[in-house]
Amino acid sequence: MFIMSEDSQRTQGRDAQSSNIMAGKAVAESVRTTLGPRGMDKMLVDSSGEVVITNDGATILNEMDIEHPAAQMIVEVADSQEEEVGDGTTTAAVIAGNLLGEAEDLIEQDVHATTIVEGYHEASEIALEAISEQVSEEVVDDEVLKQVAESSMTGKGTGGLTAESLAETVVEAIRHVELEDGVARDNVTVHTQIGASSNATELVPGIVIDEEPAHDGMPSEVEDASLAVLDVELGVRTGEIDAEYSIDSIDQLNSAIDAEESEVRGYAETVAESGADVVFTTEDVDDRVASYLATEGVLVFEGIGDSDAKDIVSATGATRVGALDDLEEADFGQADRISAENYGDDDLAFVEGGAAAETVTVFVRGGTEHVVDELKRAIGDALDVVATALASGEVVPGAGATEIAIADKIREEAAGIEGRKQLAVNAFADALDIVPRTLAANTGRDPIDALVDLRSAHDSTGRAGLITSGEEVTIDDPFDYGVIDPADVKREAIESATEAATMIARIDDVIAAE
């Protein structure tokens, strides 16, 4: 009896578990060397020759051409981490891979997968308690937030800028969008522009879009601007069907031209008389309308994208208008300054101040596309973790100190757990050692010696991490060196890694259709 197609491939039992675990471990191993301040970068080249250079875990995993379904689950761990808290993607992936490695050893010792899953879930609950115990009692003020941002960016590609100087910009941006009921993280955008040193990176109190004025004669800057956002084509109306007009005389031709001129001038006069200083429209603007408006001193940007129109509306308080006859002063948005600036081959529009200042843009500069792309990723992660830390008010020590504390507590609690589940709980603690071991390996220290020293320092002081300063590597309290992570980043890494590892460990039958 044939139940499945003859072309189907089926792998069962220990072979299926081994295959899935091996795939998950391989993916985690691919990003392990990027972890920490001494982590290395990866160069990813796609089939078209496009190059990405980064040490961001989520970016690396998403750029890799991964087909194995179990390996794809590790990618989802990084994606979940990125989506929820914005950083810790490499940590989450590495922990998930090591949990699978420990599970494989237990399976070879005939420990049932269900027992491993139960032990891992119990250990993860202990881990979350341990994280809460590591939360600093210090108030999360601007100085702490800068340390969080700097810790996030240390070791990442920040061009000629130091993580410390960028951290100030990041904290200023997040503070700018802090509301009574939380942080409006979506109100902070990152815009990249090549052609200058990364030292030219700045915070713009408003939004930046890739647009140029509709006419060269228009003003390049408007102060205290009243702006209109339109979904209107400012030009001669055309029908949707093909039509021909027969003209028998010069008078008829002149009349047609005059009618057309009257129409386009009417559009220009309507806009000018409305009182709008600046106009953004998602449709096209006839050259004659643009010329008329230029003489009236109105700055116009045509053909803007729908997303840009939404951003301008959100930032300035404007109302999008779909018909020119409906345009009223009440529909205008306000901005302190709107300017058009040229950067080599690129033209940008800056909408700053006033109501627009509720949205801020980190204007990232860099000498090459690779530099600004990696800088954008680093700043994006830093913005996310600062927003997370500010929202929760909870930070924990970095540099592997929290993982050491979690593993220590799990081993302590494991003594009270009966049966084979205790093996799984202890294995979970061993898996967490991969974080400090990897940090040590990436700094050039012997991982085993470093782990022994970290455990010893933790037992005597209660908090110990692997601190990298220049060429020196010290074991000390990370809080004393400003190496700090949001507690939610650690929690999310533990939870997402545990979920992925337990899901993969429980699979004992893989059916693949050709």
Automatic annotation (TrEMBL):
Belongs to the TCP-1 chaperonin family. Residues 1-20 are annotated as: Disordered. Coiled coil: none annotated. It comes from the Archaea. SUPFAM superfamilies: GroEL apical domain-like, GroEL equatorial domain-like, GroEL-intermediate domain like. PROSITE patterns: TCP1_1, TCP1_2, TCP1_3. It comes from Haloterrigena gelatinilytica. Pfam families: Cpn60_TCP1 (PF00118). NCBIfam families: thermosome_alpha (NF041082), thermosome_beta (NF041083). Gene3D superfamilies: GroEL (3.50.7.10), GroEL-like equatorial domain (1.10.560.10), TCP-1-like chaperonin intermediate domain (3.30.260.10). InterPro entries: Chaperone_TCP-1, Chaperonin_TCP-1_CS, Cpn60/GroEL/TCP-1, GroEL-like_apical_dom_sf, GROEL-like_equatorial_sf, TCP-1-like_intermed_sf, TCP-1_chaperonin, thermosome_alpha. Keywords: ATP-binding, Chaperone, Nucleotide-binding. This is Thermosome subunit. PANTHER family: CHAPERONIN.
